[in-house]
TrEMBL record:
It comes from Phytohabitans maris. The keyword Nucleus does not apply. It comes from the Bacteria. Residues 1-22 form the signal peptide. InterPro entries: Bact_solute-bd_prot1 (IPR050490), SBP (IPR006059). This is Sugar ABC transporter substrate-binding protein. SUPFAM superfamilies: Periplasmic binding protein-like II (SSF53850). CDD domains: PBP2_TMBP_like. Gene3D superfamilies: Periplasmic binding protein-like II. PANTHER family: ARABINOSE-BINDING PROTEIN-RELATED, DIACETYLCHITOBIOSE BINDING PROTEIN DASA. The lineage of its organism: Bacteria, Bacillati, Actinomycetota, Actinomycetes, Micromonosporales. The keyword Signal applies. PROSITE patterns: PROKAR_LIPOPROTEIN. Keywords: Signal.
């Protein structure tokens, strides 16, 4: 999955005008290592590890929690100003990495000098944070989206196995859509969520790539892309989802499943443990993950993996301490021991993590094999610096379709035109 950045970061043209705002050289005694945490499951998994780092090394960490999009914009501002106020840059897979790679220090020289080994990580996940054969981060929180369902509702409806095709999937949703329970619920309210689901559905309808090989044109307005758009629209406009799910992000979808408002969803696997938490849901123990269905002619399911790593800012004044923290995180997430917090193991990314008994408890009865298979053949969001803007366009087109203002065909054609203008610009 080696890749190249296929477009230049537009904001870099501004850097010469703000160079006086700071840099990575000199200065006073380094303070705490500063980083941002996206609110949610990854935040919970990181907090005990960061506390352990400070206890072991004496190096303080200033971790600021905020919604992920706020974190994204704050980091870009800090980097563009060369302020150096954020030492480790939060990366949401290649979609964020592509935006800021020019302002990160590749880790390869430091890794070689300190004999840092990343060989136990699944190599496909290491590649998620690799551009031009340069490693920018370690895969600390990467996960695939899978189908998640209520086993007890399936059994009550006489459904003996998860759906394997999209015809079956829609048929199941209709059969389960009864008694105050919706057949499906999804995070249809936020572009970064629903566009990733659309991309995964499109791949499993036969889409090769969302963009052309050179990254300069949209390549999604074809039967596979339209079919995935239409499927998402049919679930919502067909009354198979809660009406307010058009406003849900991941957490709203999680709560709907915990409360028993729906029988199926598509979410990152990280949400399975929260669903099966007895203190949070009366239906705990009934939630299972399943492979993604595929359309006719698609023999192998494909999974969009997203998730977190940290890059080292070129402008940090605290590089050595920040690198020490990166090495610590690499060790703890790559080779979690018996004392690892279960929150850390909801995203297994290495052979050691998969073998950990606590991971097996989170994904019992063969579910761990589904997770591993998904991670061994990952797809990522396109590695172009404009992907955030493109994602917003696709998200708006989905909303227009959900509201009945456009058909799937019209919505995707409209998105194609806007995306091509973005890429041309």
């Amino acid at each position: 999955m080696k890749r190249r950045i296929v477009a230049l970061l537009a904001a870099t043209a501004l850097l010469s005008t703000v160079a006086a705002c700071g840099g990575g050289d000199g200065g006073s005694e380094p303070g705490p290592v500063r980083l941002l945490l996206p609110t949610g499951a990854f935040e919970r998994s990181m907090q005990p590890v960061l506390a352990a780092f400070t206890k072991e090394t004496g190096i303080k960490v200033e971790a600021i929690s905020m919604p992920q999009e706020d974190a994204r914009s704050r980091q870009v501002l800090d980097l563009n100003n060369r302020a150096g106020n954020i030492d480790l840059i939060l990366l949401d897979d290649v979609a964020w990495l592509s935006e800021v790679a020019a302002q990160l220090e590749p880790l390869d020289e430091r890794m070689a000098a300190d004999n840092v080994d990343i060989g136990d990580f699944l190599p496909q996940l290491v590649d998620v944070f690799n551009i031009d054969d340069k490693q920018y981060a370690f895969p600390l929180g990467v996960s695939p989206r899978t189908l998640i369902y209520r086993a007890d509702l399936f059994e009550a409806a006489g459904l003996t196995r998860p759906p394997t095709t999209y015809d079956e999937f829609l048929d199941y949703a209709r059969k389960l859509n009864t008694g105050g329970v919706s057949g499906f619920v999804g995070p249809w309210g936020r572009a970064s969520s629903n566009v990733s689901i659309w991309l995964e559905l499109a791949f499993n309808h036969g889409l090769e790539s969302a963009l052309s090989p050179d990254g300069k044109k949209a390549a999604f307005n074809n039967p596979a892309g339209v079919a995935a758009f239409k499927l998402m629209g049919d679930l919502y406009t067909g009354g198979l989802m809660p009406k307010d799910s058009i406003e849900f992000a991941h957490d709203g979808t999680l709560v709907a499943m915990q409360k028993g408002q729906a029988a199926m969803t598509i979410l990152p696997i990280t949400f399975l443990r929260a669903m099966n938490d007895k203190s949070a849901s009366p239906h705990a123990g009934q939630f299972r993950i399943a492979p993604m269905p595929t359309a006719a002619g698609v023999s192998t399911a494909r999974y969009v993996v997203t998730g977190w790593g940290y890059g080292l800012s070129k402008h940090t004044k605290n590089a050595d301490n920040a690198w020490t923290l990166l090495k610590f995180l690499n060790d703890k997430f790559q080779r979690p021991g018996a004392d690892a917090d279960p929150e850390q193991l909801i995203r297994p990314a290495s052979n050691t993590a998969f073998a950990n008994p606590k991971t097996q408890e989170i994904f019992p009865d063969g579910q761990i094999d589904i997770v591993r298979k998904a991670l061994e053949s990952p797809e990522t969001r396109p590695g172009v610096v404009q992907w955030g803007e493109i994602e917003s366009v696709l998200g708006e087109s989905l909303q227009q379709m959900f509201l009945g203002k456009m058909t799937a065909e019209q919505a995707l054609a409209d998105a194609e035109g806007k995306v091509n203008k973005i890429l041309a610009g």
